[in-house]
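Hi X.,

You mentioned you wanted examples for the new student's onboarding notes, showing what a folding record looks like when two proteins sit in one file. Here is a clean example. The first protein comes first, with its sequence line followed by its structure tokens.
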Amino acid sequence: MSDGDVISPVDAGLDGPAVAAASVDQRYRELFEGARLGVYVSRPDGGLVACNLSLARMLGFTSVADAIGTSMRAICDMADDRERFLASVRDPGRLEHHRCRLRRQDGGMVDVIEAVAGEFDAGGTLTELRGFLIDVTTSVEAELALLDRERQFRAVFFDAADAMLILDDSRLILDANRAACALFGASVSEVVNQPLDALVVDGGEQLHAAWRELLALGEAQREHHVRCRGAGTRLVECIYRTRMHGHGHVCIARDISDRRRIEERLMQAEKIDSVGRLAGGVAHDFNNLLTAILGYTELLLVERGPDDPDRRDLEEIQKAGRRAASLTQQLLAFSRKQVLMPRDVDLNQTVAELQTMLTRLIREDISLVCELAPEPAMVHVDATQVEQAILNLVLNARDALPAGGEIRLEVTPVGGSQVQMPPEQPSAAGDYVQLRVVDNGVGISPEARAHLFEPFFTTKGVGKGTGLGLASVYGIVRQSNGFITVESEPGAGSAFTMHLPAVRQLPEHTPAVAVATTAARGRDTILLVEDEEAVRVIVSAMLRRSGYNVMEAPGPRQALDIFNHRGNEIDLLITDVVMPEMNGPALAQRLIGLRPKLRVLFISGYAAPGIPPEADNPNVSFLSKPFQASVLTARVAQMLARANGGH
């Protein structure tokens, strides 16, 4: 028989009772050694007397023999609690569900739940400890991870910048963070235990729909108006998430009132810019037509005497044409395509000089008060256009005072840090001058305020306004690198504030330029470049009637051909600004490159980039369409007579 054979009790020569006892002992040993639980026997001082393989492996040993002799006191994480542990076993005789941490041989820790029974001698002295250990390390780690996630969630929840609410299935608020309390203007105790529906102003179907979507899909997003103590109603964006960390549903509420207001203002600005581009294009085309209409009318009037039966009709045509030209100028002002002649202006002086005229324009039951700045309020603007803007605002204020009242003009220099720039206005360093036109009239509704600066929008009756007054003010101010704001409520009056960049220079004293009032005569040669045939024909006729030789070109390419062949004969270039193939400034640059002292007169329905200021080049000038024949010929004569001219 080999050493590895198992000897049964019968083979060992044992009798019946002994065999039975040995069999039971064998089964207990097999149970002891094969148990998945850690089983051990130790002395009260902690010395390990016996254990099974599960316990040995639990403690990091490869065999039971290696584990025997280990001190259970030494490997216990709370070694100092050994006496208390022994007392807990000694008094009742056993200890159930005892949690502890044991140090493995490799230094790692194992979390266990222990059941221990004490073995006592005849005198009641504890002689042995017999215990069972369950390794719960994985469960403990999971529990700790859960607690850690819980702590993280609570930290994020309470410290979040966005308002956060915990809701139950019936939308009852279970918890609220600091940001939520700040949003609603209430304490935690005031917010908790009330339904979300009570805070939402426009709850109804929107809130119900969001909740159905949340329960079905696990998330939802809606915008609600909510009640905020001390701040009225605010627009919030609510993002709902379901069953977060077992806390119920989470609602993240973000106040988007200011963002939505900025978005609406940006959309409005983009809308106005789009309409402005359309208006500028329409005004440009109209100016070409009006140049022809007014030009031919003026030529016909020159040939009609005072008693001519057709003269009255021609004068009516001229009057209508000038009225149409005035309307196109307002459209150009709105679209910021108007030709400006900026200079340094003191707004104090401008308002003071306008006061008498404005007083005559308003009714006797309206008082006009001007509050000027104590120091010069210098801005770089077109004085005429700013005067027109002030006039339009005062007339608008007058119409808002049907029962009389007060209009106040205020000029105030302000530092750049005090100015709240609108979102559509590029930020610019520097100070501003505010010119406010304030009335205590009927005020403006929020609906009307949203459209105030749109062309042709008016709250006045049919025939009482063109709807271009405020639109032109908007364009003048924006083209002057400023912006305009309005504050108004129904029944509380209105305040329109123009913000114009301030300058530090003293006011310029612009000398008056003498303009010829009689028809100029000349024999010089002019190259006229104009792609609009009707304009080209009438301008050519105006010049020829004044004795000038005119070479006509319908476009830049033809103009270059003429100049290449007969350039030495040309004394003055008159060119449109906006043309196909090549614009007027580019054409002029090409020709000036061939003839540096060539004089150039630009004509256009609206301002365009690329035209050098007259102050920078005395050989360059600009004339805005539509123009009278006398103005054109006077400007041409003035340019041809300037010193340093010639070839």
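Then the second protein repeats the pattern, sequence line and then tokens:
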Amino acid sequence: MRPLPAVDTLKAAVGQVIASNTTDGYPPTYFIRATLRGDAPDLLARCTALIMKPETLDVLTDAVQRFPTLLTLEDFVARGGAAWGFGDDAIEQSAARAAHFDTIAGERRYI
């Protein structure tokens, strides 16, 4: 279990996901492209789409099986997404996904 990094902005959260995944040995290539490394002008919309897209759940589930401490955008959005403008659906989906990833990992990944 790791502490969830402290971030103040969505861009910072995206940066932390990229840095953490890279350090853990999981290159988040699609996430980097989709968010333009956090520089996308429509970052909130892009991140919401990633969270709501069923295919990303499958990809991340596989990744968490291989890298149990994988940090995801959902970990951040479940806790602080309202402050960044995420809607209730995306926040609820993020919370459900984060719980799912914890189950796959066999423990709570972030406190």
